[in-house]
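Standup notes
- HV: blocked on the assembly model, inputs below
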Amino acid sequence: MIAPHLADKVESSADRCLVAAAEEELWPLYRQMYQIRCVEESFLKLYDRGLLFGTVHTCIGQEVCAVAVTSALDSQRDVVWASHRGHGHYLAFTGDLNGLVAELLGKSSGVCAGIGGSQHLHRGNFYSNGILGGTVACAVGCAFSEKMKGSNGVVAVFFGDGAMGEGIIYESLNIASLWQLPVLFVLEDNGIAQSTPKQFEHSGDLVTRARTFDIEITRMRADDVLAVHESCSSIVDLVRRSSRPHFLVLETTRLAPHSKGDDTRDPLEIAELKRRDPLRQHREVLHASNPSRLEALETEITQQLETSIAAAMDAGGLAPEDYLERADAR
Amino acid sequence: MTRFITAPMVNVNDDGATFSAWLKPDGTLVSKGEIIAVLETSKATIDLEAEEAGYLRIFAKPGSQVAVGDVLAALCETVEEIPQFPQAREESRQEAAPQRKITRKAEIAAAKAGIDLAVLQAQVTGSGPVTEADVEALLARRGTARPDLTVKDLVDDAYPQNRRQRLLIVGGGLGAVQLLDSLSRTEHQQATAIVDDNPSLCGKTILNVPILGGRDAMERLFRDRVFDAAVVSVSTSIDFRMRMTEMLKDLIIPMANVIDPSARVQRNAVLGTGNVILAYCQIGSCAVIGDGNFLSPYVDIEHHCTVGDFCTFGPGVMMSSLVHIESRVKFGTGIFIEPKLTIGSGSIVGSGAILTRNIPANSIVKTKINYTLRSRAVSSSTPA
Amino acid sequence: MTILESLNAALLSLLEEMPEVVLFGEDLLDPYGGAFKVTRGLQAKFPNRVLTTPISEAALAGLANGMALRGLRPVLEIMFGDFLSLCMDQILNHGSKFRTMYNDSVTVPVTIRTPVGGGRGYGPTHSQSIEKHFMGIPEIRIVAPSVFCQAGEVLEQAVRDERLVLFLEHKLLYTLQLFPESAGISCETVLDDRGYPAALLRNYDAGTPDVTLLAYGGMSRLLAPFLQRMAEEEIRILACIPTLIKPLPFEVLCRAASESGRVVVAEEGGLSWGWGAEIAARLHKTLFKELRAPVTRVGAADLAIPSARALERAVLPDEAAMESAVVEVLQ
């Protein structure tokens, strides 16, 4: 039998309606989601034009996860670890648009001077890396530090259902629970790993895996950013107060390909998914409420982005010889 | 049938004895029961009898320590017979003679200088390990003749003039076969032993002549009077011939010329030592030949030509008169040399060359021989 | 003082002096004190900063990386060097990369201590000198104490190093005395340009060496008797034993190599693709005209390290292998 305190907190957002009191809270969250969407779509366009070297993994369709969780964190003391699909988390947590755009365009004004690129970002308390699962262990180490330093900080680590195949995640869950570390594990379950649907990757229920390690679980559909944000706020508070890990499962939808042009899903299925795009649904609500405010917000975001891209295009890159200088072995 | 005489078990307390003296000289025909040698143990001296009649061939050296079972001598049915040296004896001898340690550094220096370790052991005096400095001193001494001991003295002492000269063949390869073939038809020489550094050849024979060990064995075999003089049979490596000659000189072992009976050496020709001259060669009148040369069949060194040391001639090298060939020149097969030319030392002349001008030292003379090669049409009925 | 005592004392003083130091690894709980007892007594003194862990090497290395990013100086013990393979992803794709890929905005002062090497019959998966598999990883440092250094001080330096350091402790060194008495051998310590000590042993008083021998870690246990024996053979040897083995303290090695122009590199790891190969390539380029013989390597056979004593001996390099290499370069 499962102990009562371990029972899933399964919350449905379907029956929630956006009441007027909450609407004001939605504006800044929508602003972040919209910015993420615009930035990532422009990355894909830059890529198509051959101006973006390398690759990008967008979170188009999953913006709710990044925005709802990071908006519940304190960027001064809390830490975020993201994975390869981390632009949204970066923008939502750090707000550093110019640093991200320049980074993707390989400029020295990029947050990591063009060395890290899309998957390897660090600014302040934000970290990301392109290796699935490995980031989770690093996040647990960060949580150990925060606890030992007494900073009262919480570490949130984002990973997808694909990464749940990595063994190191289970080692990390065990230690985080064993040592009572303030980690918020955020599983963004989009049901697809690169091109492989979840049923070809996992047996059993992903959600219950964390329970084995005596970790509390919350599972919810990540469609309503406000609802998820509210839940996250109380979860983060719980993690901070109890210094115990929590496992949050956000069921979400990836609308874009894994990377670029590698989506093998049925176009009809994707079209149906897009119809239920949370960004679109939130926009409809705000448009109904105050169309001119919405237009002003969207224009501002778009112009900001255009300025940012133009500035990054003009900027220079790190000089190769300066980079080569850094080698430890000479 | 050769019978070996071994050291007997003379005393239960002793593992061996001191070999005192031979009472009969090497080569003597002894009869059965004749006392031929004396052994000494801690308790007594023991006479050694010949178990049967035969020609005595002596191995053991007076004053040496011998272990029970060591081969001391052989009794042969005929005076020409060459007893094959059993391996076991060599091993026990190595144990018996405690050797001075040679440092690795000295070993390396000796190897670089081409000094054999046995020579090093023998020629360095003093106590403690043989050192690099000893090797350097030995190298410094080289070339300065020892007034008290010369090769000539040893040759005169080594064997009576009325007996065939017994030869050690250095190198047990194809050259040795040619040499032994030539020697089988000569009156004044006979091969008694071969040394070769390939340990797997030890104990085998070539044309009935035994291979008695590697170069390390030369000094002992000479001391034991297994041979009177040595000749190096290796034609292919001039370097090896030089090194071995040097080592033999260091050991004060005389060198011999081997000349096939079908070769002709004309009047007033002068030969050094250690030369091999095979079938149908001609050494013209007044030609002068140095040391350690190897002449394959049909080589013609014409009158008044000179040849230095350690040259190798392939078959059919012909020259006109007054040609001057310096040292360490290697000739291929079928070469013609115009008169009065000088062939510089260290040169290599390829087969089929016709030399019409002087060759400077260390040259390589290549010949271009054009020919076409194609498969011959073979009908199916022709046996393959 | 033994190497083990020296390392243990160093860890104690690190815990006392640096509050950001954390020790963790499997079986560190006192009274057991770690499989090789290097941390014995420390967990009892610092129960909150010396932690015994689950058997999860991959996550432990990840934890160390995360701790280091957030201001701690983790010292992770991996019970056997062979298990470092389980940490490979965290070392290769995380810890070694953060500093550079985040544009030098972080440091990752992680130290991973681990016993390495054979000679105890532990067999294929508990005897390896596994470091060559890590030597190609940019940005990390690999440090190995020898008997000719203050092992504890070198460990302290590794922990204070801002880079990820693999600290390799050869199992056979633990019980040996630091700086063993060795008649006729002089020992001098020099510092490389990153401040790690290298020992220079000489078995001669004056003149130039015949051969320069480069070795590290466990091979150092063989050197004093080996150099004494070589002295008896009149072979003058300069042995250079760095503690920083990767990146190469090249100036120190190169200076030692040029003293003789004949170089033997001895390592316990498998011969191919190893430390010696890298040194040989670089020395041949830098000292091409000064070298009097090709740089010659001594190492283990490229095979699993067998358990049986005779087989293990046959695979691992010993004094005889060093001697034949020395003779080879002299010839």
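- HV (later): unblocked. Chains A and B do not touch (no CB pair under 8 Å). The longest helix of chain A spans residues 20-48.
- Next: hand off to the docking folks.
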